[in-house]
Structure formats: structure tokens, C-alpha cells
Design a protein that fits this description.
Number of strands: 5
Largest sheet: 5 strands, mixed
Shape: globular
Number of domains: 2
Order of helices and strands: HHEEHEHEEHHHHHHHH
């Protein structure tokens, strides 16, 4: 009898521990997007603790001494992007967004763990916009402030941030790249050059699951084509409806059906993808 009695508290304790673990897993899964963004914010704050910082109305800009002369234009362009892109999306972030300006492509690549020969003018990830110093890609003889606004990554990357915010991280890579290109083209007129060589168009399954391993020029071009097709046929409002569906937890294919009554296969046929 005593052995039986001593086993009861043990069983109750094990059950409570299991229940706590399950509850923690549920909380983590439901808040994984916020947790990742909080972790990345802390990590970048630690790694850029030696950077200078300037706060604007909607941004916290961190930069090294070599970029001190560029910060005002970066700030002005960022605030213009905020005004115009939030107006387009009809959505504003709750908190200030972080912009980190890296002095060279090596330090930018290192911040992501990329190979040092990988290059980009800007990257959005987990609530943070990371920019390559304008002095690395704009000629000194150019009107660099105009070039930065027209050809720089600010509008593109801020659009990514809003997509991530609205959907809670629940989006397909092709969709956010298509939206970012559409926003950039609409506001600044900038558009990536078309693919140098032709090729068989990718399916949405390929774009969905393997984007970074595909021909990037073609993958980006198809992403823009898909978004522009949706807008041309169903209206710009349909884009925001899809984002809101994604924010409510629908998968990409489900969000398309719910918003514009078309699925991946139908969209592929319309676009001649795959």
C-alpha cells in the first residue's frame, strides 16, 4: 500500500511536467515569429554595440564612423519609404524599425554567415533592414543621394518588413519578392533587368520550396510577373487581402483561393509557368 501511495505523487508530478512542456511548445509555436525577431534584435544589438546610432521618427539607424556623412540621406530616404510604403499597404509597424549600415560587403555577408563573396545592397531579415554602405556601390561623381533613393534597396527592403509584419512570417519567398519589386517599381521606377538567357519557367512549387537555389534573375522576374498579374486581373486590393489571409494563418495556396478564387495550378496556367 505504501508503495502505491508513493507512486501517485510521482505520476502526478510527471503529468504536470508533461503538461508544462506541451504548453511551452504550444506557446513557442504560436509565438515563434516574435521570438525569432526578438532574438535577432538582441543578437544584432550585441554585434553592433560599437556602431554609432541615430534615431529618426520611425527608424533606429546604426552605422560605423565611415558612413557618418551618408546617414542623413539614408534617414531621409527611409522616412520617405515609410510614408509611401505604409500608405500603400495601409499598415504601420508598432515599433521603430532597425536599419544597420555595414561599411563593406564582407561585414554585411558576415552578419548573415554568408560566404564573403556573396554581395547585396540590402537584405531584410527578422525585423532588421541591413544595408551596404552607399560608398561601396555609388560613384563619387554621381548625385549619390538621388541614386540611393532611386536605385538603392530602401523601398524594397521596407516592403519586405511590412509583409513579414502583416503575415507574422507566414509567407512564400516568391510572394514577398514579387511584392517588394512591385512596390519599388511603383514608387521609384526601378526594375531589375530581365534574365540574360531564356529558360523554362519555374513552377510555384519550385519557387516555394527552392527559391535560393534557382536562377535568381528568372525567379525574381517570375515573382514580379505573378504579383503584377494578380494586381492587373483582380486589383491591388487583392494583394492586401492575400496578405491578411496569410496573417490569419492560411497557407499561400489557401490564401489565393480565399482572396481571388484561384489556386497555384490555375495561376500557373494563366502565367504559363512550369
Amino acid at each position: 500500500m505504501s508503495a502505491f501511495k508513493s507512486a501517485v505523487p510521482y505520476k502526478n508530478g510527471a503529468f504536470l511536467l508533461l503538461l508544462i512542456i506541451i504548453l511551452l511548445l504550444v506557446l513557442i509555436s504560436r509565438n515563434s515569429h516574435a521570438l525569432v525577431r526578438a532574438w535577432v534584435a538582441q543578437e544584432t544589438s550585441w554585434k553592433t554595440a560599437h556602431f554609432l546610432q541615430k534615431d529618426s521618427e520611425h527608424f533606429q539607424i546604426r552605422y560605423s564612423v565611415v558612413d557618418e556623412d551618408y546617414v542623413k540621406v539614408i534617414e531621409d530616404t527611409a522616412e520617405d519609404a515609410y510614408m509611401r510604403v505604409t500608405n500603400l499597404f495601409d499598415y504601420e509597424p508598432v515599433e521603430k524599425s532597425i536599419i544597420i549600415v555595414y561599411p563593406d560587403s564582407v561585414s554585411l555577408a558576415k552578419s548573415f554567415g554568408w560566404e564573403k563573396d556573396q554581395k547585396a545592397m540590402g537584405v531584410y531579415w527578422a525585423g532588421t533592414i541591413r544595408l551596404l554602405s552607399p560608398q561601396q556601390w555609388i560613384s563619387p561623381i554621381d548625385d549619390w543621394s538621388a541614386v540611393f533613393a532611386r536605385e538603392g534597396p530602401m523601398y524594397h527592403e521596407f516592403a519586405h518588413l511590412l509583409v513579414d509584419d502583416i503575415t507574422g512570417g507566414n509567407y512564400s519567398r516568391w510572394f514577398t519578392e514579387g511584392i517588394a519589386q512591385y512596390v519599388e517599381k511603383k514608387i521609384t521606377g526601378f526594375e531589375f533587368p530581365p534574365p540574360v538567357k531564356g529558360g523554362t519557367a519555374y513552377t510555384f512549387q519550385q519557387l516555394e520550396s527552392n527559391f535560393d537555389q534557382l536562377d535568381q534573375q528568372l525567379a525574381y522576374r517570375q515573382s514580379l510577373q505573378a504579383v503584377e498579374f494578380i494586381i492587373d486581373k483582380y486589383g491591388e486590393e487583392s494583394l492586401w487581402n492575400i496578405l491578411n489571409c496569410l496573417g490569419r494563418g492560411y497557407k499561400m495556396d489557401e490564401a489565393l483561393i480565399k482572396s481571388i478564387d484561384i489556386d497555384y495550378k490555375m495561376l500557373e496556367r494563366e502565367l504559363n509557368f512550369g
